[in-house]
């Protein structure tokens, strides 16, 4: 039954090689940047293709770590991520829980408002003016409040809450539990999977966000990590070696850029292998109809 | 009679609100936040029809009619942005859309489960990085001393400044879009393939169907609903061509080809020409919602169970 013709064998080999090549091509730019960040200037400028640096050095990392803006930007990104994710979980679940209850008033109308917000918005100019008029420019709240409650997250959470048997809630009520207690002691503990998926996505989104900070944060000490990368690596508007000559013995502009990229990507690279499967679960959750 | 039933209704409503009062208390803070950032900005759309003065506010400023739209359509810059957006959208639809479908099919044909997991893990990876990081990597990778030029040098070809060359811009945009999204995009198709009843394949094998025939007659048709739904959704987002990617990959010499509707609006915002930017943004949003509604109609027409709402 499982004898394969030579054509099928050929296809299997071709398929294997093709996917191997695809994987290598996907990974190679990352590996290249990692390798480059560890290179000495002489190796970096040599016109050779190599995967492992001959004389690995941390000189570029030391230089970037000494940058006056880097740690401030790191701190700002951590603050927005922690604050943003906490606020997102709290506010989204508080909106989603009542919506999951059958007796809640105006459920249909509210759901329509949620769905419409996914289809139509004013765009960046009214949003900018709103944030400005609220006096939130240069405040971390400008980065965490607008995305705290999104229709997408509310719908995913609401769907999950609806799967919790109503008998449990009924029983709790008969035992005299109020709504707040039911939400905090029954619904939330039973919803750890969906909370985890939304928290992980929220964390990646906040860690990677740069556009809102570019628009709303004008003070140089309020910058986030992604903008530090944009200003130094892409725009080259901010020097990676401020106020001094480039020490061409120790690093090149390119090795410094590579080290900067690695320093910013490291947290994601480190947690990625462990949390990848949660994200995959999240995609399939999100594809369910609201 | 009518009044009594109305009063009865109101009374029912009141009782319902009273019963739900604690739920409302939980609900309101988050919902207020949602309304503030999703519905309050909508009134800023009026700017497109006004002579906006910051001192007088949006409501106080004088009406300008359709003047800004006339300005918009008379200017070469907006039409250029619209043209570029359409070109990139078509390219992404033609090359970026089929790529994850092909990947899912190839992954599904793979016999080595561990190898499949490795390929999946690796191809999902770029999705987790911002386009700032990915563009940073590409600027290093495609730079004058970068890996691409080293590779090209091995074949005796000349070095290129890849990202500074307008002719290469769309090619780079399409390829790097595939690089970033092929793995992640394949998840949903792969799930559709994984849910196929294995007895279908067994029966086909018993009937002597070749590998190719099994793909053609079982795998592809089983994926069809997913493919069509996602295609129509992409059609609905036609004008959303990836601001983050394009804005970060654009250089001084590729500004002309890299200007899309979203970057056009951003530049108007940065130069404080709010009216023109809002007119362009509104144009974008209205076309967008028309496309989404049409696409949803088409999904429903194809399959009543599918669709956004």
TrEMBL record, chain A:
The chain crosses the membrane at residues 12-31, 78-97, 109-129, 141-161, 182-204, 256-275. It comes from Paenibacillus sabuli. Coiled coil: none annotated. This is Carbohydrate ABC transporter permease. It is a multi-pass membrane protein. It is found in: Cell membrane. One of its GO terms (cellular component) is plasma membrane. PROSITE patterns: ABC_TM1. Belongs to the binding-protein-dependent transport system permease family. Its main location: membrane. One of its GO terms (biological process) is transmembrane transport.
From TrEMBL, chain B:
One of its GO terms (cellular component) is plasma membrane. Pfam families: BPD_transp_1. Keywords: Cell membrane, Membrane, Transmembrane, Transmembrane helix, Transport. Residues 82-295 form the ABC transmembrane type-1 domain. It is found in: Cell membrane. The chain crosses the membrane at residues 21-40, 86-107, 128-148, 168-194, 215-235, 276-299. It is a multi-pass membrane protein. It comes from the Bacteria. One of its GO terms (biological process) is transmembrane transport. The keyword Transmembrane applies. Gene3D superfamilies: MetI-like (1.10.3720.10). Belongs to the binding-protein-dependent transport system permease family. This is Sugar ABC transporter permease. It comes from Paenibacillus sabuli. The lineage of its organism: Bacteria, Bacillati, Bacillota, Bacilli, Bacillales.
């Amino acid at each position: 039954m499982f004898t394969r013709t030579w054509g099928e064998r050929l296809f299997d080999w071709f398929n294997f090689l093709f996917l191997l090549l695809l994987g290598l091509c996907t990974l190679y730019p990352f590996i290249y940047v990692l390798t480059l960040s560890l290179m000495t200037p002489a190796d970096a400028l040599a016109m050779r293709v190599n995967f492992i640096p001959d004389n690995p050095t941390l000189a570029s990392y030391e230089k970037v770590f000494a940058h006056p803006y880097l740690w401030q930007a790191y701190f700002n990104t951590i603050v927005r991520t922690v604050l943003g994710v906490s606020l997102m979980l709290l506010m989204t679940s508080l909106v989603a829980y009542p919506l999951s209850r059958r007796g809640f008033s105006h459920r249909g109308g509210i759901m329509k408002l949620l769905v419409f917000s996914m289809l139509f918005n004013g765009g960046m100019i009214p949003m900018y003016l709103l944030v400005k008029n609220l006096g939130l420019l240069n405040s971390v709240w400008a980065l965490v409040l607008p995305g705290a409650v999104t229709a997408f997250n509310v719908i995913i959470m609401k769907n999950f809450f609806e799967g919790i048997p109503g008998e449990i809630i009924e029983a709790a009520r008969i035992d005299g539990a109020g709504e707040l207690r039911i939400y905090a002691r029954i619904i939330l503990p039973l919803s750890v999977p969906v909370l985890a998926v939304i928290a992980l996505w929220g964390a990646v989104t906040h860690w990677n966000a740069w556009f809102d900070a570019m628009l709303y944060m004008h003070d140089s000490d309020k910058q986030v990590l992604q903008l530090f990368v944009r200003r130094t690596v892409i725009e080259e508007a901010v020097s990676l070696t401020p106020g001094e000559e480039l020490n061409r013995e120790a690093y090149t502009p390119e090795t410094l850029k590579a080290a900067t990229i690695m320093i910013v990507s490291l947290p994601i690279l480190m947690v990625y292998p462990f949390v990848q499967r949660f994200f995959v679960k999240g995609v399939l959750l999100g594809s369910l109809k609201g | 009679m009518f009044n009594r039933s109305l009063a009865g209704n109101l009374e029912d409503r009141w009782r319902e609100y009273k019963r739900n009062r604690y739920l409302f208390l939980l609900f309101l803070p988050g919902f207020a936040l949602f309304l503030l950032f999703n519905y309050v900005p909508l009134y800023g759309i009026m700017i497109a029809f006004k002579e906006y003065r910051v001192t007088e506010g949006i409501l106080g400023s004088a009406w300008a009619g359709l003047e800004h739209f006339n300005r918009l359509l008379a200017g070469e810059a907006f039409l250029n942005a619209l043209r570029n957006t359409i070109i990139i959208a078509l390219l992404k639809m033609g090359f970026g859309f089929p790529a994850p479908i092909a990947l899912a099919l190839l992954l599904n044909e793979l016999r080595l489960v561990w190898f499949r997991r490795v390929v999946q893990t690796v191809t999902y990876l770029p999705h987790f990085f911002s386009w700032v990081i990915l563009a940073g990597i590409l600027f290093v990778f495609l730079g004058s001393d970068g890996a691409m030029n080293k590779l090209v040098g091995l074949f005796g070809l000349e070095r290129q400044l890849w990202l500074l060359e307008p002719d290469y811009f769309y090619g780079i945009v399409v390829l790097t879009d595939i690089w970033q999204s092929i793995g992640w995009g394949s998840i949903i198709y792969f799930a559709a393939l994984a849910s196929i009843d294995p007895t279908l394949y067994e029966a086909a094998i018993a009937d002597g169907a070749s590998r190719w025939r099994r793909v053609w007659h079982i795998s592809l048709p089983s994926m069809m609903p997913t493919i069509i739904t996602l295609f129509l959704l992409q059609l609905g987002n036609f004008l959303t061509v990836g601001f983050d990617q394009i804005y970060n990959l654009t250089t001084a010499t590729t500004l002309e080809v890299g200007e899309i509707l979203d970057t056009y609006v951003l530049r108007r915002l940065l130069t404080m020409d709010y009216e023109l930017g809002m007119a362009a943004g509104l144009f974008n949003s209205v076309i967008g919602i028309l496309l989404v509604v049409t696409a949803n109609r088409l999904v429903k027409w194809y399959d009543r169970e599918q669709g956004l709402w």
